[in-house]
# Entry
Amino acid sequence: MTIEKIVLHKQADKRVKQGYPWIYSNEIDTKKTPLSSFSPGQVVRVFNHLGEAIASAYVNPHSLICARIVSFDPKQILNEILIEQRLAVAISLREACFDKPYYRLVFGEGDFLPGLIVDRFDAHIVAQLNTAGMEQQKEAIKHALVNLLNPDSILLKNTSAIRNLEHLPQMVEPLLGHPPEFVELEENQVLFQAPLLEGQKTGWFYDHRLNRALISSFVLDKKVLDVFSYVGAFGIQAAVKGAASVTCVDASDFALKQVKRNAKLNGVDDKVTTICEDAFDALNHLKNENEHFDVIILDPPAFIKKRKDSEAGLQAYIRINTLAMKLLTPSGILLSASCSMHLSRDMMLMMLQKAAQRAGKSLQILAQGHQGFDHPLHPLLPEMDYLKAFVVRVNGSASE
# Structure
């Protein structure tokens, strides 16, 4: 098998030699290696301007991130053998961290498999092939997963916006077997059913595992409000851990029906109520009804999806957090989260302070959180550290 090469401009190899895993289109010497000569997902070797091989990668001439490095050993290329080796290492990490087979199995560059996301629900696997390079390796990924885990089913949930940047279609399709509509899982000793086919992303958000455990320390005998609840991961765990009552708010009736099923599954359906409404409207209505809560959990979708949305998104975060703070009892607890990559921790702290000022409150930061152990970070890609969570004590009068 002949492996083509890409040649970098002079000085463009510095970041590669430091371990940076992405190569941008303007770093490639297109006179020596025209991008038009490559097909999306093609495996290549990376050469510096002196003609020295320094890495292997796969390319997509249509993407700004033109090449994603697979190995800094140029002889080691992306194929089924390497995929199975990397998957085996990823599995060993998860098995060292968790005693049950429910976790994110592959987190892209964090597991040295750029463009690949895999979530495990015991015998059922959900994968996202987010790049052309991983799309080309679809069968190799399937074979490697079968060899290592022998799952009953593998579902491809290729609905990520990243695929648009890669000029790939969005689709949901089985790769192996017959993926079930719902799958069971256990998190923090609490049982759930997650919707694989109709649910968001892969059906579940494993990244908040540690934050759900964290807030559970504050809920005993408390009145809890879970906003943007989805299928109740935060709220049901709070109920199981001893909350007096839990109200879950979400705009999706489908998600809230699953909240009720998950509450019943854990024997806490008498504690859990739901509100199907836009979160901003719901919080305003609760305020008008003079409702108050001891603990509020805010886990909104990414209000800042692109850098150009930063100001509008920041204002949305301020508004929703202000509304929540006004609903807290004196010295109540707020867990405020953000999955916006473009909202830094410092920006989020500034946002929380502005929300507190608008609500007439003062804050004490009790704890900070981010994604769990099954979301390992690449040290040179701060973009991967997307999930922020702050547990704060909100001081001041509950009524404005």
